[in-house]
Amino acid sequence: MRAKLISGTELSKIIRNSVTQRVKVLSSKGVIPGLSVVLVGENPASQVYVRNKVKACEEVGFFSTLDTYPSDISEAELLKHIHSLNANPKIHGILVQLPLPKHIDSTRVIEAIDPSKDVDGFHISSAGALVKGLPGFWPCTPFGCMKMLESINYDLKGKHAVVIGRSHIVGKPMALMLLDKNATVTICHSATVNLKEITLQADVIVAAVGRVNLLTSDMVKPGAVVIDVGMNRDDHGKLCGDVDFEAVSAVASYITPVPGGVGPMTITMLLQNTLDAAQKTLIP
Length: 284
Ligand code: NAP
Fold this sequence. Notes:
The protein is of the alpha/beta class. The protein is built from ten helices and eleven strands.
């Protein structure tokens, strides 16, 4: 039987509708969730990402700003701007679009964000909270993957989840979130020996590498759930993930498409985190 699709586009609609409703309630109490997106330089991909984020904010009724700076802005100038956003009560979430130009220490910039406004979940406080199982902002991409698993009522308890990729923004936090739900987690990376042997044991596979056709059908156990985080271009310039979608669909029980899968969920969880940050300002 062919795998069922977990559509990030459809799930996003449901979550964004609920965010819109919650924004109305918050606004009636005098709080309009505000997100500030900071872009340095003219990276075309980053420009597309930030435009999509700001547009999504407008659609759910947030207040949002897009602050763009030339690529030669000094680190001190940028830090000054972050401090002013930290102090701005209209802004509940701050997102610095990465990568930053080489002369700027991105760690220093991210660590300058007030943790209560770290809606991207990249601050060391957020990462620490995730490790310790404490409340905090979860990075949007793996958070979106968890929502996708939740949407099919998938019980991770005792399941073997294999995460391919160990970046700070996807692979590592993904593994911790799966662990938090009582999965047995294996993390694979570029030095992993015999990846196929490991993925064949998996009930859930999250592919987050950035390589076309990294996961082929012979690497997937029948009935496994496959989440494709990858964003690549194939030989024809078409957007695709890390998973050989057609062939793996014949083996898996559920699969996420690219496009229309994890991508839209990432922005949706950014909205969710920003809403939560705004909501917290009401709690004395
Ligand atoms: P990254 O920082 O480049 O990390 C890639 C990871 O893949 C690394 O941990 C690397 O291992 C591992 N890897 C490389 N080759 C491998 C191989 N042959 N076998 C197993 N593991 C291998 O990338 P990222 O930021 O995590 O992003 C991963 C992918 O997700 C990219 O395509 C990116 O565009 C996409 N992405 C999508 C979204 C979305 O919203 N849809 C958001 C973020 C990222 P080492 O650590 O050993 O180098």
